[in-house]
Amino acid sequence: MLSRTASSLYWLGRYVERADFIARLVEATVRLDVLSPRPAGEAAWASALAVTETDEAFAASNETLTQGHVARFLTLDGSHPGSIVRCLDMARNNARAVRTALTREAWTAINRAWLIFHSRSSPGGAAATLGLVDAVKTEARGFEGAIHRMLRNQTTWFIRLGQAVERADNTARLLDVKYHLLLPEGEQVGGIVDRDQWTTILQTVSAVTAYRWLYSEGLRPANVIDLLIARAEMPRSLAASVEEAVEILNLLAKRTGLHGEADRMARLRQTRLAKTRSGEVIAAGLHQYLQAFIAENDLLHMAIGRQFKFI
């Protein structure tokens, strides 16, 4: 397979996964700000910008920090790489470059997601915004389902590798929301608003039912952290994403003969994460742990690019 083809497939996986994540993040923020018994207000939308690293770009737009402005910025503003429409545009461009390698179902899911934003200038109010991001999530799930029904070869492996790397980054950033999202003045840790925020994080990764299956003592922040970091049976956890990256790199090594720096980094990370205990992470500092993980994940991304000659 040509390196540019592999690169397009890898980035296709990353951009679709990123669009899905931003959609989930916007949904979570709307729920915290508008649908919560005690709205989180500006803090919720500031946290969404911080997590996607678009806070400086938003500040440069001179818009006020409101639900309408930030929701539009993260969904429909094509002037920066942190919006859903920009991610889908890049995903579609990469899909077009490898169109013959994709099934009709995979291409249709991407194209339908892209068409959702055609001639749209505003996400609308809270209900309309939730409908918009839900439509994006539906098409992202359709794309992922189509990929899993394709031939299991280099085409699907590079897409899945991109998804695994992006998903690890996204889950770490989503969990780090609680570092950026401050409790309103007068609210207590463990109170109604705090529980609302943790529940919303679980809803964002479709993990409410999984949490209830695995933990019997009710909602506890330590358990949410454990679920999203260390439980490999949870598909969006760091452990599951790390495990999937190792698996796919092994498959690519057997097929292509390319085995090197990325494989070693991925295996070392998997071994280290298997020994990680959530209690120790919390005691040492969750924010610091997640920031280190995000940085390491970026290094793995660069190593993948060098190993398969993307860069």
Describe this structure in words.
The chain is built from 16 helices and no strands. By secondary structure, it is mainly alpha-helical. It is globular, with a radius of gyration of 19 Å. The chain has helices at residues 3-35, 42-51, 55-60, 67-75, 84-97, 104-115, 126-148, 154-175, 177-180, 192-204, 208-214, 221-230, 238-256, 261-274, 278-284, 286-307. 72% of the residues lie in helices and 0% in strands.
The amount of beta strand, in percent, is under 5%
Radius of gyration: 19 Å
Query: Which sequence of SSEs, written as H and E, runs from N to C?
Result: HHHHHHHHHHHHHHHH
Structural class: mainly alpha
Number of strands: 0
Helix percentage range? over 70%
Q: What kind of sheet is the major sheet?
A: none
Estimate the global geometry from the Cα principal axes. Answer: globular
Name the poorly predicted regions: none
Number of DSSP helices?
A: 16
**Could you tell me how far the N terminus lies from the C terminus, measured between alpha carbons in angstroms?**
15 Å
Averaged pLDDT: 88
What's the topology here?
Layout lengths: L2 H33 L6 H10 L3 H6 L6 H9 L8 H14 L6 H12 L10 H23 L5 H22 L1 H4 L11 H13 L3 H7 L6 H10 L7 H19 L4 H14 L3 H7 L1 H22 L4
Helix pairs in contact: 1-2, 1-4, 1-5, 1-7, 1-8, 1-10, 5-6, 6-7, 8-13, 8-16, 13-14, 14-16
Question: What key attributes describe this structure?
Answer:
16 helices, single chain, mainly alpha
